[in-house]
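Email to the structure team, subject: Sugar phosphate isomerase/epimerase model.

Hi all, the expression group asked for a predicted structure before they design truncation constructs. Nothing fancy, just the tokens so they can compare against earlier work. One-line instruction: predict Sugar phosphate isomerase/epimerase, return tokens.
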Amino acid sequence: MNTRRKFIKNASLLSAATLLLPQITMATTRNSSYGVQLYSFRDDMLADPIKTLEKIASLGFKEIESAGSSKGYYYGLTPAQMGETCKALGMSLTSGHVHLDDKFEQTMADAVASDQEYLICSSMPSDGQTVDNYKKVAEQFNIAGDACRKHGLKFGYHNHEYEFESENGEVLYDVLMDNTQKELVHMELDLGWVVIAGKDPLHYFKKYPGRFPLWHLKDMDMHEKVSTEFGKGILDVPLMLEMKEQSGVQYIYIEQEEYASSPFDSMMHNMNYLKNL
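Reply from the structure team: attached below.
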């Protein structure tokens, strides 16, 4: 990935016009708003969701993506309370990680009440790592996507590393991409898990341009296979941000599941890293 980044930078030297590209890209990056996946603050959200959201807002985050917890998808708040609290703090509840299960109709109704845009299936509802199973799941996702669209919502899927395993030479994630309808199933690409799986996010941006309206921007320690602060792991964060347009990304959620000290210290580091690119 470092070689590819150098190639892009060297190519910009070919003309006077392209010399302006890095400055334009960096300015765009600095002016971008970032979201956060609330699993990063899971313990704090369970203990005191409103106080925690206030602290998250103070870090400069503008978009919120919720996650499942022992108190539900909204950490003990009602869906409306969750959405209204975020708005009052200058943030938007734009997405939520959910399960595709027998409660999905209520999940959609709650998402409408919270005024969020996306419902993201957080794990593979599959009985096995086979092409046939992934094709079956793709059809389930198409059906869920159609149901969400009727409620004014958008349905999507968040990957881990196991989706990039292969059967008979076929990458299972590609099977999922090829068998889901892009207008019904909106992919949230977790960039950290892609690189842990030994794949390149840029390959997927090129192969499926515009298919990834949501990202999890997550740096990873390749040796421990855990998340880490930006600049300490394997993910080339600046290069990823240069490829935003090709990927079609609308919302970038920072997620960190493990921390050097605390989630707030780690997220402060991450936000400062992005500001100082």
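The two ends are 18 Å apart (CA to CA). The chain is about 45% helix and 15% strand. Ping us if the truncation boundaries need rechecking.
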